[in-house]
Amino acid sequence: MRKVLLLAIGICFVLSGSSFAFHDAGVAHCNGCHTMHNSENGATVGGAATGNPWLLTDVSPSDVCLSCHATGLGAVYGADPLAPPDLKGAGNFTFLDEDNLNDGHGGATNPIGGDAAGHNIVAPSAGLAADATLAAAPGGTYSAAVLGCSSCHDPHGNTNFRLLYGIGGIQANSFTFLNAAPVADGLSVHFGSESQTNHTAYQSGMSAWCANCHGRYHQQNSGSDLIHRSGMNLGGTWASNYNAYNGTNDLTGGVQATAYLAEVPFEDPANTTAGTAGPVATSDIMCLTCHRAHASSAPNAGRWDFSVTLLEEDGLESGSYAIPDPYADPDQRSLCNKCHVKDVGDHVTTP
Ligand code: HEC
Ligand code: HEC
Ligand code: HEC
Ligand code: HEC
Ligand code: HEC
Ligand code: HEC
Q1: What's CA 135's distance to the chain center, in Å?
Q2: Contact present, 319 and 100 (Cβ < 8 Å)
Q3: CB within 10 Å: which end of the chain, N or C, has fewer?
């Protein structure tokens, strides 16, 4: 009995103590990721039998990160795309392993491969390769051949949200970011999962940050630039729609104090990880209103599947993981309706 108790106290200490940190909002000890001679006790280190120019402990930057982060510490690359780990915000790279993501009509016979699930990180040891379709970031020039964890996160650490790069050179100065890191607050990577009262609190700058690679996808629908608004104010009409909308079955029953939907987030400096408040007119719509930053079980890293009519159809044609419907209603339509309410009169079954 006493032994068990002591053990439990020991575990608590490890979990809460600094010994469970690594990056510590700065550069971690170098040999967590580097090997000076590619040799330890006379044997080559990790999977790096052939070594690499950055003296890393595995064949690629992403493989090094995945050695700690694949199934633990955020579990960004779960082992089974049909049973993904707890969601922390970014989605999951496990969906890159799907053979079909197409849940649109005829999806079973017209497969859309897993590389459309999101960002294809190049990690040979983990069996992940560059996107077969997209050679560069749509809207920009960043090459898909060098996309990996250290394309977005600074391996040498910083004080930004999730160690994301700010303005300056990345990957040994092979590419330059022109826009600052986003301001946000995330869940612990050690425990918990996304819910309506536990979620990333997006505050500002995400669209501009994505635009470091996706260029013109940012901003507005005006003149010849025919794209959906992003990184801009929602405006009163759309903020009111968002707040009133409580699903296809309840288009006007929502109130601002509880309207927040983690599946369709927005940016606001007042957002908190436990917050439930919906937007005001000056809150921003942004890239992650509709996308996950890593990957999802829908094409184009959608937070919901953009190709299904009813959310309950997700996963049926493709056999892929079904993204849960936050309203749990068989009549629930696309979450674009959270702001646009085009599902008027579409509820047919009695709830
Ligand atoms: C979390 C993993 C990690 C840690 C810890 C780490 N590095 Fe690195 N380092 C990398 C990766 C990955 C690269 C390859 C370049 C890239 O992808 O950005 C790299 C590249 C480098 C480079 C060459 C390119 C450049 O940016 O100048 C140097 C020099 C370097 N690291 C030194 C260090 C030193 C010194 C430490 C300890 C104080 C350290 N690193 C700690 C992951 C790490
Ligand atoms: C030796 C294990 C180890 C390796 C290798 C490693 N990490 Fe981590 N990482 C951790 C631990 C432990 C934490 C949680 C505590 C902390 O932030 O130091 C963490 C936290 C993080 C976080 C969340 C930080 C936050 O502020 O919420 C990110 C993002 C991250 N790591 C990215 C990376 C990337 C990118 C690489 C590869 C360049 C990498 N890690 C390599 C152990 C590792
Ligand atoms: C370091 C550069 C870089 C950054 C930063 C970046 N991306 Fe990408 N993105 C790419 C590249 C390269 C591709 C094409 C290769 C691929 O899809 O794997 C891509 C593809 C995509 C795709 C299409 C996926 C598919 O296969 O259909 C979406 C959606 C996307 N990015 C959204 C975002 C969002 C949202 C952000 C900000 C959170 C972001 N990107 C930040 C480089 C980047
Ligand atoms: C295209 C840019 C991009 C790439 C590539 C990328 N990340 Fe992230 N990552 C992000 C962003 C943005 C967030 C915050 C997402 C949110 O909260 O919505 C994030 C969140 C995280 C977190 C916090 C847990 C979570 O799921 O939200 C960890 C840990 C992490 N990344 C590690 C990694 C590792 C390891 C890799 C490579 C295997 C990687 N990232 C590749 C942009 C990227
Ligand atoms: C209102 C929702 C919404 C917002 C906001 C949004 N996207 Fe998209 N995005 C989509 C949809 C839906 C698609 C699927 C293709 C289409 O309908 O154009 C898509 C497709 C993409 C693609 C794939 C394009 C291709 O050629 O395969 C990329 C890359 C992308 N988005 C990046 C971004 C970035 C970066 C931002 C922020 C600057 C952003 N998106 C904001 C909904 C959105
Ligand atoms: C968070 C709120 C929000 C979400 C979610 C959202 N939109 Fe929008 N949408 C807006 C706002 C705000 C505008 C007004 C932009 C403007 O006036 O240029 C807009 C404008 C549009 C327009 C009209 C553009 C014009 O010039 O009139 C279309 C079409 C559209 N959205 C489609 C979609 C689709 C499809 C989705 C889901 C993939 C979606 N929206 C999700 C907020 C949203």
Answers
A1: 21
A2: yes
A3: N
Q: Which two tokens stand for residue 22?
A: 């690594």
118: left (phi over 0), alpha (psi -120 to 50) or beta: left
Ligand 3 first shell, C-beta below 6 A:
115-116, 118-120, 131, 134, 136-137, 142, 144, 147, 151-152, 210, 212-214, 287-288, 291, 293, 300-301
Closest approach atom of ligand 3 to CA 287: 35
Nearest to 189 by CA among 347, 285, 65: 65
Pocket test for ligand 1, best of 36, 63, 156 (most atoms within 8 A of CB): 156
The answer to whether 314 and 323 are in contact (CB under 8 A) is: yes
The string of pLDDT tens digits covering residues 31-79 is 999 999 888 888 888 655 677 889 999 999 999 999 999 999 999 999 9
82-134 pLDDT, tens digit per residue, is 999 999 999 999 999 999 999 999 999 999 999 999 999 999 999 999 999 99
**Residue 149 pLDDT exceeds 70:** yes
Terminal C-alpha separation, the chain: 51
List CB contacts of 78: < 8 A, sequence separation 6 or more.
70, 71, 84, 85, 92, 94
The Cα–Cα gap between 222 and 307 comes to 26
Do residues 277 and 294 lie in contact, with contact meaning Cβ atoms separated by under 8 Å? no
Kindly give the distance from the C-alpha atom of residue 319 to the centroid of ligand 5, in angstroms, as a whole number.
Answer: 24
As a whole number, mean pLDDT of residues 222-233 equals: 77
Which residue has its alpha carbon closest to ligand 6 atom 18? 221
**Which residue is closest in CA terms to ligand 6's atom 15?**
229
CB of 267 within 8 A of CB of 283?
A: yes
Q: How many CB atoms lie within 10 A of CB 153?
A: 20
* pLDDT for position 14: 38
Q: Phi and psi dihedrals of 211, rounded to 5?
A: -65, -10
Please name the amino acid found at residue 192: G
